[in-house]
Design goal:
alpha/beta, HDACs, binds N-{4-[(3-aminopropyl)amino]butyl}acetamide, 8-stranded parallel sheet, Arginase, Chain A, hydrolase, Histone deacetylase family protein, single chain, 10 strands, His_deacetylse_dom, zinc, binds zinc ion
Length: 343
């Protein structure tokens, strides 16, 4: 299987994040991608190719123009004020506040276009996020146009928390949604997204919530107990034309393979019934037992089981990396999925 990756993605190098109500060292760091690349080389897994540069259209199919422009021009506005470093929002237009008109001030825009304060914006954030989206699109292209049975987009920053017009959860552009939409636009009738990140993929779900042409399935920590807290419950099953085309398996803190596997089986049964032309896997590795921010207990061996199970679906598959923060073992777990899928 080929891996797609661009070193531009490394230029987003956050220093701090605000999580659990405190300023902490950032966990979504360039070393994550480097750990995965190191394993790809150690195991001689396959070639690593750079992404093609896609034009603005592919992003616009998922994100609003005003949001993309905000990300693109953010650094200019930020430095105009004499500011440096990385930016965090601190006020949000929640219930009782107005969405329109948009503020002029960058601090207002930061709140309008974000869902949390845990996701820093820096000088190279947009460039890296764009390269990450190109990586996802190129992986999709390898499968759709070049007939590869599978491809791996080593996306970083991740994407699944980002919505049509907001960033959050370390995510800026929704790589999986952009790839799925591109597959729809260039030939696929039905695309399924299986989100295996420890955190619910609220952005992806919201993007496709009213559509039947992109099935969204997610196994994740119960939002009653875990970030993103406000989406990902079992009763969210889609609306309008999308009724029945979203499924969530929220699982309790401490879930190991014995609790995880039945949910995975159910998700796989939905995939068999839906018969997608392509499967996009939002591959978070933060269900690992030693993940510093995740509370599940999957082992490195369990990730092999996961990959082998997905292979049995026999659907052309685009793997896109999402979260996973146990950097020392991240590459091992990621390659355990990918290699078992191929065997
Ligand atoms: N107690 C992804 O995995 N902070 N995003 C959680 C931990 C936000 C995770 C605080 C986690 C976002 C792509
Ligand atoms: Zn996650």
């Amino acid at each position: 299987m080929q891996t797609v990756f661009s070193s531009i993605q490394l230029r987003h190098a956050p220093v701090h994040e605000i999580s659990d109500g405190q300023v902490k060292a950032a966990v979504e760091t360039p070393s994550r991608a480097e750990a995965v690349l190191a394993q790809i080389r150690d195991r001689r897994f396959g070639s690593v190719v750079p992404p093609f540069e896609f034009g603005p259209r592919a992003l616009r199919r998922v994100h609003s123009q005003s949001y993309i422009s905000f990300l693109e021009t953010f650094w200019e506005r930020w430095t105009e004020l004499g500011r440096d470093g990385e930016a965090f929002p601190f006020v949000w237009p929640i219930r009782s506040l107005r969405q329109e008109p948009l503020p002029d001030h960058v601090d207002g825009l930061l709140g309008r276009y974000s869902m949390d304060a845990g996701t820093p914006l820096g000088e190279f954030t947009f460039a890296a996020a764009k390269a990450s989206a190109d990586t996802a699109l190129t992986a999709a292209q390898l499968v759709l146009e070049q007939g590869h049975p599978a491809a791996f987009g080593l996306c970083r920053p991740p994407g699944h928390h980002a919505g049509v017009d907001f960033y959050g959860g370390y995510c800026y552009l929704n790589n999986a949604a952009i790839a799925a939409q591109w597959l729809r636009d260039y030939g696929a009738s039905r695309v399924a997204i299986l989100d295996l990140d420890y955190h619910h993929g609220n952005g992806t779900q919201s993007i496709f919530y009213e559509r039947s042409d992109v099935l969204f399935l997610s196994i994740h920590a119960d939002p009653r107990q875990e970030y993103p807290f406000f989406l990902g419950h079992a009763d969210e099953t889609g609306e309008q034309a999308g009724t029945g085309f979203t499924r969530n398996w929220p699982l309790p803190y401490g879930t190991g393979w014995t609790g995880y596997e039945p949910a995975l089986e159910e998700a796989c049964r939905w995939l068999v019934v839906y018969r997608p032309d392509y499967l996009v896997v939002s591959l978070g590795l933060d269900c690992f037992e030693e993940d510093p921010i995740g509370g599940f207990r999957l082992t490195s061996e369990d990730f092999k089981r996961l990959g082998a199970r997905l292979a049995r679906l026999n659907v052309p598959t685009i793997f896109l990396m999402e979260g996973g923060y146990a950097t020392a073992t991240l590459g091992i777990n990621c390659l355990n999925v990918l290699q078992s899928f191929e065997e």
